[in-house]
Amino acid sequence: MTSVTVAHYGLGPIGLGIVDVALERGHRVLGAVDIDPEKIGKDLGTLLGRAAIGVPVTADASAALAGRPLVVFHTTQSQLARTTPQLLEIVAAGANVISTCEELAFPWRDHAEHAHRIDTAAKARGVTVVGLGVNPGYIMDLLPIVLTAPCRVIRAIRIVRVVDAGRRRLPLQRKVGAGMDRPTFERGVAEGTIGHVGLKESIAMIADSLGWTVDAVTERIDPVAHGATVNGLHQVAVGTSAGQPIITLDLTMAVGVSNPRDSVVIDGEPPINVTVDGGIHGDVATCALAVNAAPIVVAAPPGLTTVNRLAPIHR
């Protein structure tokens, strides 16, 4: 991969993981942004346990973007309404954006106003913006889309992802409610602080690729519990057409879950049933996907795009 100039906006576990892969690939880091006072002023390399690279972390995004990086890896929050100002600031600086914001993965269905603003700004500056990751952005949308290639007919798609949250970062464990009691879990679901963001976006992406019309999307979140203690969640989203389920996304993320896996079942001609035993490690894969996407995004037409509309991402 050709080395490019990059900056990193957000330095949580995923953000730092992306930095690590980017440095490993020889990309030149020009700036790093985070609001954590424990990180501000520290060298980005030393935060990773590497030798210093001469890039101090700053809370001032404009300073981090002043070097005009070609690509900015953006890893802050899941909700597009909260990240849109950040994305517009990056675009205004003339950088292409690869973001892990889940609602950016396919925002045109539920967040059209924000999507339009970002798309207009990106086209005006001649840069590309995309939201991607392992889920949404690969396992429960892009992978099944690619697997439909040999199908003459497709009637329905079902994806099952079972993740042992005990092998994942602590923020994710908190997001799925691990360690909570049931009332606290249910309250978190009602308030929107518990649950995986992105299943609706994945359904919209699949439908977009296949030319399907999804009339409605329903979503349910239940605890996976051992006695009074919650270990995680079971979340199911279903896209229907004419009252019939055509896209089902079944996600379990819980500490100590048995038989972790990623499965794609396509009811079609020919039928397709593919399972990745053990599942794809989300944190490792998200970091690699973001960095592997860099040259593809740089070469893409300006504007807000989605991963299913990009050229194939590969190592």
Helix amount = 25-40%
**CATH fold-level label of the largest domain:** Rossmann fold
Q: Using the alpha-carbon principal axes, give the shape.
A: globular
Count of helix runs: 10
The helix/strand class is: alpha/beta
**What is the chain-wise order of helices and strands?**
EHEHEHEHEHEHEHHHEEEEEHE
CATH homologous superfamily of the largest domain, by name? NAD(P)-binding Rossmann-like Domain
Identify low-pLDDT runs. Answer: none
Provide structural commentary.
By secondary structure, the chain is an alpha/beta fold. The protein folds into two domains: 5-132 and 284-309, Rossmann fold (3-Layer(aba) Sandwich), CATH 3.40.50; 142-279, Dihydrodipicolinate Reductase, domain 2 (2-Layer Sandwich). It has helices at residues 13-24, 44-47, 61-65, 80-92, 112-125, 142-147, 170-175, 182-191, 199-210, 282-299; strands spanning 5-9, 28-33, 57-58, 71-74, 96-99, 128-131, 153-164, 216-226, 229-241, 244-254, 261-269, 272-277, 303-306. The strands form two sheets. The protein has a seven-stranded parallel beta sheet, sandwiched between helices. A six-stranded mixed beta sheet has the order 8-9-10-7-11-12. α1 (13-24) crosses α10 (282-299) and α4 packs parallel to α5 (112-125).
Features:
single chain; 315 residues; alpha/beta; Rossmann fold; Dihydrodipicolinate Reductase, domain 2; seven-stranded parallel beta sheet; six-stranded mixed beta sheet; globular
Write a brief caption for the model.
Helix content is 32%, strand content 29%. It has 10 helices and 13 strands.
